[in-house]
């Protein structure tokens, strides 16, 4: 009986030691994560302070620019009409009649704070992705590290590309559509500055997030959740969704305009299929090599 008690005591001490080791490992991971978060927060804070210095440029040349008819996108649209008159004069936007007001006492101060914080986060996205990579890198195998070595550069490039697509295409076309849309001619469109800023940020940052689709598909394919067969089978539904989004944001009913907006999204979806197919081929090749050795 005493031997059993001694054995139980030894087993209890062993289990306690294992639990303590696991607990320490968990807190070690939390400490590492905290350091990555603090570094990211420090960089974002510096970028936000820099954004305050460039407030005039951010507001006049970036945020308010899509509201002005001399915006780059509108000028290019008018040049397209000159080169191809068959598109129609409606495609050339020469005026945007929108009255933007502030209705809150601290509204403009709050807007400056929010815009500078968002500018700091947007510019700091590559560094945030870099810190994420540093955190997950030790948990990856050598082969996985090599295959994901370009994660930060690729994700940052796609995010920047999405921002440009949203800012120079989706955002101005949507603003022009929403400004001129009326259910009754007696109703005058007057927008609050917070509503305008929210629309610009949502469309621009939303496009940047949507352009992360290949990265998301890469991760899901690695986990075996997404397959190229599934994406090919749902291509028709994705095409309909893309066309609906393009039809909403385009200023005219001209199909050519809608296709200009939809084309990059189609390319993004097809790129995601290629990435998923490439991962599946590598998995099948690795399985054949593994079972071939046996």
Elements, N to C (H/E)? HHHEHHHHEHHHHH
CA-CA gap between termini? 49 Å
Helix content: over 70%
Strand order of the largest sheet: 1-2
> Helix count, per DSSP?
12
Question: What is the compact description of this entry?
Answer:
The chain has 294 residues and is mostly helical. The chain is built from twelve helices and two strands.
Indicate the topology.
Elements: H1 2-53, H2 55-63, H3 72-83, E1 99-101, H4 107-123, H5 125-136, H6 142-147, H7 151-180, E2 190-192, H8 193-210, H9 213-222, H10 228-233, H11 235-249, H12 255-293
Parallel strand pairs: 1-2
Characterize the structure shown:
By secondary structure, the chain is mainly α. Helices cover 77% and strands 2% of the residues. The protein has 12 helices and 2 strands; from the N terminus they run H-H-H-E-H-H-H-H-E-H-H-H-H-H. It has helices at residues 2-53, 55-63, 72-83, 107-123, 125-136, 142-147, 151-180, 193-210, 213-222, 228-233, 235-249, 255-293, and strands spanning 99-101, 190-192. Strands 1-2 form a two-stranded parallel ribbon.
